[in-house]
Amino acid sequence: MPTAETLAAHVFYEDRGTGPALLLVHGHPFDHTMWQPQIDRFSRTHRVIAPDLRGYGDSPLGAMTESTDLGEFAEDLVELLDQLRIEDCVLAGLSMGGQIAMELYRRHPERVRGLVLADTFPAAETEDGKKARNAMADRLLREGMHGYADEVLDRMVAPYNTHAAPHVHRMMRATDPVAAAAALRGRAERPDYRETLAAATVPALVVVGRDDTYTPVADAEEMHALLPDSTLVVVERAAHLPNLERTEEFDAALAAFLRSLVRPS
């Protein structure tokens, strides 16, 4: 897989297909293979870029740090687009990846033609949430990823979607706990993106699994209401990873959205 050296990180990425650019940003604690079904399908019609965020998958964390904020992830992605000579893209992110997408759009709206926000939410962290994220970061540094992966698997992937569970479990267990802890601490300090969404000037697709308990349907409905030009799709019989749990339904929604963005010749 190719690698691009940004100012602070070596970002590994998959780059497949030709056509309009589609940048896929994975969630925590996963890697770019979270998007494998979408890479395989949409690279037939688009240039699909799927990076490993710094500290995840094959991208090293780099200099030792206690916290990686969402802005650092976003700037890595912009530098990757620069190195690939991609002026703008459809930007899709799931969970933490969705918040990174919102941060990238907040900083560089000219680089985004359309937003896909899946199983994510725009509000800043609550005080209780900050404490919980920092406590989990401490735990991951003490214990590693295995116990955490076992505990949360049934929330990431609904128990009735057993076909997706092994891949998700492997990704979580393989994640570097130091990088995961740094991302949790940075994510705890993220800004509120609701004003960014309310001022968005690009079309957006909001997707959520009906049975997602991390980012429930109400969060998706709030984003849909904030965004001036958005479509909301609720994927039935899916939890936090509908792109893997119900790939056909997720891909149908994404395909329809991408078709709506085709520029006249």
TrEMBL record:
It comes from Streptomyces wedmorensis. Pfam families: Abhydrolase_6. This is Alpha/beta fold hydrolase. GO terms for molecular function: hydrolase activity. Keywords: Hydrolase. Residues 22-252 form the AB hydrolase-1 domain. PANTHER family: AB HYDROLASE SUPERFAMILY PROTEIN YCLE, MONOACYLGLYCEROL LIPASE.
